Amino acid sequence: MNDNNSPPASRPQTSDGKIQPWKAFWPPKPEAYTPAELEKMPWLTWAPEPEKPDSKPCKKRGVSVRHFTAFLSHPNSPRRSIKMVDDMAFQASDPLKESKSSVKGVFWYFKREEKWDHEKPYLINIPASALPPGQPTTNEISEASPKLEVHDFRNEEQSLANLDSRGFALVHDPNQYGPDVFSSYEAMRADYVPKVQEWLKTLLGAEEVLVTTLTIRKRDPYFPKYTWGTAGDSQPIQGVHIDYTPRFAQEKLEDIVGKERASQLCGRRFQILNIWRPIFGPMRDWPLGIIDFKSLDYERDLIAADVIYPHYIGETFHVFYHPSHKWYYVPDQMPDEVSIFKSFDSKRDVATACAHAAFDLELAEVQRCRESTDVLALVIYPEA
Asked: Hey, which of 120, 143, 219, 272 would disulfide with 344, CB 3.0 to 4.6 Å?
């Protein structure tokens, strides 16, 4: 880095010298707001409550903050016809389902710019109204890829070994769940989480599996015009990303099991896996696209970014476009077909993480807006 591009010494910086602009005005000061304003902005004073693990008011952004986005939606995306159908939750998959060779899809990648040489990307997950006037909630910039080939993963040999060789695998979940299991986070914790944890322990040969994060996504008919939807539900993520950097994965391990136990686990293999499935099927609206780990170059393609919440600072990887990326999806995915993909793996000689994003199949008519669920699970393996 030459002297002309060196960050000012007075600006907060990372260990590698990159500016972190958000630190100049974070955290927001609740005392600067009236009681009435604070009532409208609960994220300013919110703190996690163990007995209410899914109560996160900072996630309830809705249409009033549609301008707040890490990845800018395509401005010309039409609102296509939505034909609602009866609830089809947890239909069994059809093993004779026809495969397609591939489809075309557009993905939103992080834009390469010289400023990333000295400035770290960031996203603050509270509305701009809670920040000082004129302070942006993000400095991130994205761009649409050309139309890319997205391969049918059903044409590949289906094996759990794909998880270590490619970063993701498609597996059948034999569990039976109640009809309302995805109606609320409380219902998921009561019925879904215990069964998934036990199933993953057996499937992976793990010593312990702890589900750490639950997300239910219900695509709004106005998405992607309004990136965050209009009703407060979590929406599909268009930006190509990896949920955890190695540094943040280690912090997450310590946060979940405590620093003392984390130190005892030093040298043991652990993973953070994403367990993704549609709530009804067949899934044809904004399916999940995944990049084969073997086509990804960490040094060339990834950039770490800060993700700021009122109660913690996370770090994710955004992904720069490269024509070598090989994309896959599962056409007509059913609820008992589970996509398992890596957010982190401490083992070094295997696929360690999986870049992913939602994409639009651009169907003329959508039978039903996508509903899906993804949970992040900490997986700890026995001593070698």
From this structure: 272
Q: Is the pLDDT of residue 249 over 50?
A: yes
* pLDDT for position 31: 76
Strand-by-strand arrangement of the 356-358 sheet = 102-105, 148-152, 327-329, 288-291, 356-358, 241-242, 313-319, 302-308, 122-124
At 67-120, the pLDDT tens digits run 223 333 333 333 333 333 333 333 344 433 444 679 999 999 999 999 999 999
pTM for the whole structure: 0.84
Q: Measured between alpha carbons, how far is 323 from 230 in angstroms, rounded to an integer?
A: 34
Distance CA 159, CA 203 (A): 12
User: Is residue 66 within 8 Å of residue 231, measured between CB atoms?
Assistant: no
What's the CA gap between 283 and 366, in Å, rounded? 10
Two tokens, residue 192? 């879904």
pLDDT at 254 over 90: yes
* Cα first-last separation, the chain: 43
